[in-house]
User: Fold this.
Amino acid sequence: MSEILRAESVTVKFGGVTALDNVSLFVAKGEFLSLIGPNGAGKTTLLNTLTGVVKPVSAVLKLEDQNISGLQTHERIRKGLALTHQIVRPFTSMTVLENVAFAAGFKKVRKIWPSLMTLDRAPEKEKAVRFLEMVDIESYRDHEVSKLPLGVLKRLEVARALAVEPKILLLDEPLAGLNSQEAGKLADMVKEVSRQGMTIVMIEHNLSEVLRISDRLHVLDNGRNLAHGEPAEVMKQPRVRAAYLGG
Ligand SMILES: Nc1ncnc2c1ncn2[C@@H]1O[C@H](COP(=O)(O)OP(=O)(O)OP(=O)(O)O)[C@@H](O)[C@H]1O
Ligand SMILES: [Mg+2]
Assistant:
């Protein structure tokens, strides 16, 4: 498999806290990679560094053959990175469909205001419906976002990310807060998106789902790389077990 994304020498500091210390990560085209590790390991910080939301002390970031380290977040999105958030944050004044149409329009015109203008346009709406179908929430299309249950909001996050038609989908705890049945269903849906060819990097604490759907694991602990490789092999490693048991 060819490599689609690579991060090297990623160091991030927040004041006196070193959140990431010389971390590296690679992602193969088409793979489903799960990024795991205890609370505070630096997982979200690593994805935020990839998208440019966090400014690293040092980092070499490559998407396909291009160095993206110096690019702004919107430029990285345009090049093919999309991120969902640990805390869902849709536009609450819009309907479900409008949220996704907005994301589809953003891909096209790449600016906030013009993409607001495209909200009523048929092509974006048609596209948005397709993504709502993909995550199985099209029955909520005209609902106001502010009144939706978390399970639907989590799916909406994924639909919004898919709507920018990324090369890589970065998911930050898509299953968090869901009961085990809902989590299983959403994990199936993410796996289906992966089967259709999307490259996925997923941060997730739900290890049984992670082990069920991932091709490979990358483990961070306390701001450092701990292990990566085939899921069952990684979970057998004593240092990975120790990190999870806190000892
Ligand atoms: N904006 C910030 N300002 C200050 N410190 C931060 C900030 N964001 C993260 N940190 C710190 O950086 C470290 C890594 O945090 P990060 O959120 O990346 O961890 P995580 O692996 O995503 O954890 P979790 O599983 O709890 O989401 C932690 O010590 C955290 O407190
Ligand atoms: Mg996090």
Notes: Residues 43-44, 86 surround magnesium ion (ligand 2) (CB under 6 Å). The first strand starts at residue 3 and ends at 14. Strands lie at 3-14, 17-28, 32-36, 58-63, 66-67, 81-83, 168-172, 199-203, 216-221, 224-229.
